[in-house]
Write a structure and sequence with these properties.
Elements (H helix, E strand, L loop, with lengths): L2 H9 L1 H12 L2 H17 L10 H22 L1 H4 L15 H14 L2 H12 L4 H8 L3 H19 L6 H4 L7
Helix pairs in contact: 2-3, 2-4, 3-4, 7-9, 8-9
Length: about 170
Amino acid sequence: MREQDEAAIVACIPSLRRYARGLVSDATRADDLVQDTLERAWSRFSLWQRRGEIRAWMFGIMHNQFIDGVRARRSRPEDSAGDDVPEIPQRASQSDGIEVRDLDRVLQRLPVEQREVLLLVAVEEMSYAEAAIALGVPIGTVMSRLARGREKLRQELQGREPSAHVAAPLRRIK
């Protein structure tokens, strides 16, 4: 390779960097693209036929490198995200089994009527009307059993005893 050809290639570097940043919009990936382009140009310089500007040839190499990279990422979708996608924080799941066991234990302590309504509405996602039909009770009964069941469940899971004013029976005063 002649010295003037080397100088022409080096003179293209700022333009190649601008073009690469426009293509990939990430400075690190753009620098990698420029480096790959320069490596390919140097290793295949003998293939340049000197019919046009070396600059146009270099941009052609970069374009082809970029397209090859896009195609390679499409064929490996699991690798295409790389570091561009931020990691999604995941909550710790070590205590899930314990929590499910505790919830099941507390559900079993609820009165059957409240447990049935809770399971139909919360787990099976039935509407109040559907739950009322399934249980053969009025909609108001479903709503009151659900409210009482949720409250008792909340108190049990928080480790508190049900409120005295809720559980106390009404007494008639003369």
